[in-house]
Amino acid sequence: MKVLTSQQMKEIDKKAIEEIGIIGPILMENAGLQIVKEIKARFPQINKEKVIILVGKGNNGGDGLVVARHLFNQGCDPHVILLARKQELKGDAALNLGIAEKIGVKISEVPTLKGWEIHKKDLFQSNLLVDSIFGTGLTQPAAGIFAAVIEDINRAKSFKIAVDIPSGLSSDTYQIIGPCVKADLTVTLAAPKIAHIFPPSEEYVGELVVADISIPAFLFKDDKLKLELVEKKNLLPYFKRREKDSHKGTYGHLFIISGSLGKTGAAAMAAKAALKMGAGLVTVGTPESCLPIVARSMVELMTEPLPETSEKTLSSKALEKVLALLEDKDALMIGPGISTNPSTSELVLSLIPEINVPAVFDADALNILASDPELFESLPQPAVLTPHPGEFARLLHISTRDVLENKLELVPQFAQKYGVYLVLKSYKTLIANPDGDVFINPTGNPGMATAGAGDVLSGMIASMIIQEENLQEAILGAVYVHGKSGDIGVEKLGEKALTAGNIMTYLPSALKRLSSPY
Predict the structure, then answer these.
(1) What digits encode the pLDDT tens for the residues 358-395?
(2) Which of residues 194, 223, 252 is at a domain's end?
(3) Taking the model in full, what pTM does it have?
(4) Do 201 and 257 share a structural domain?
């Protein structure tokens, strides 16, 4: 499902009207009907409810007027408060204002703060508020009467439904630009917008419903639309039941380089996650003194002792053995818990140009890469980088805050520039491919902000890569299942108690939900 900016949505609307011939009033009518459908699903006896519809002068207000008309025709007596003068409405909004007036919908013209002071008491007596003040095109903070109205909407105890987007939010950013309605439900039209998806703006959206207003689906299949929300239905083919005539070699052999003194848990978690995700074989290369701990973590793992430093980290002398071990492997995962010891760093930097299989770089491997950005050009193809925001900031030599505020631009730029797959781990993890397409993962929760969760994810990604030919879908599937495992864990344990081990505990349940035909 595409996630759009306001300009992209306007262009699609324009094509639907001018090229397809779906006239504006029909789109507005469809929008209003879909919103009424959602209202009635929550208020089946709508004729008994006191409904206030707050309307602006644009097309968003026109949608609200369609809602008012249909509720009126179904026995409700909605009160429309128009925050403008009637003559200010144009086009389709003016058309629907005229219709609403002619059938007897109560409409109060409230263009000033003084007028609002007279009418706002009705707000606090309502059961349901419909917010259709601003649409997706807002770029400046709401001010004047609009700021006052938004403040009063948020004070009201009524159930609040936003049309397309809560008024005061800008659809093109997840940052808060000014006062905005805190909705219980947002019915967005045709496609979600950026503000619906990411915090902090997401926190004002409430439940999100994407309403079909009959814009043809092919209009969204445009290579210029680079941002997409991952949907479960698109991943199901990659979790189908296995062929009966298969064996462990069918599902690949993964080589993991991980661990150091005090960080053997990282190696164990990544490897266990890879096996749980379906890899046929997993071999862990780890400092020789760490091997017994890793080997005992799961009897199904294979382990290889590698030369180590006096600090019990991987030594640069391990290069020859690592290259030999890579010869019969289908993919490499490197990084969790290896440290940035100078000798370990030398090993990683010397190894990178020699890798000839798909490779996943995580944790300390990323921190080592950050020390020599020229190596980005030498990364194997394909390469998957899985940083959290702090690690990504180090790769770019900027602040973590800059990453968090500009991730929708930085992630695809990096992936395109270096021809890599980039997985920015966070709430609503972003996955970018070398073409600059960005996918938003919808699963996961704040309880997964815990030690080891990233090691589990990197193991799952590497596991899927050796099982599936389509690298992009393999990554999307792994990230989705990782988040779903965490969601199941939170259902059972709550957010605070969730650990990386719990994510693996519920991984089989998550996989079963995707592989079941029912």
Answers:
(1) 999 999 999 999 998 888 988 999 999 999 999 999 99
(2) 223
(3) 0.94
(4) no
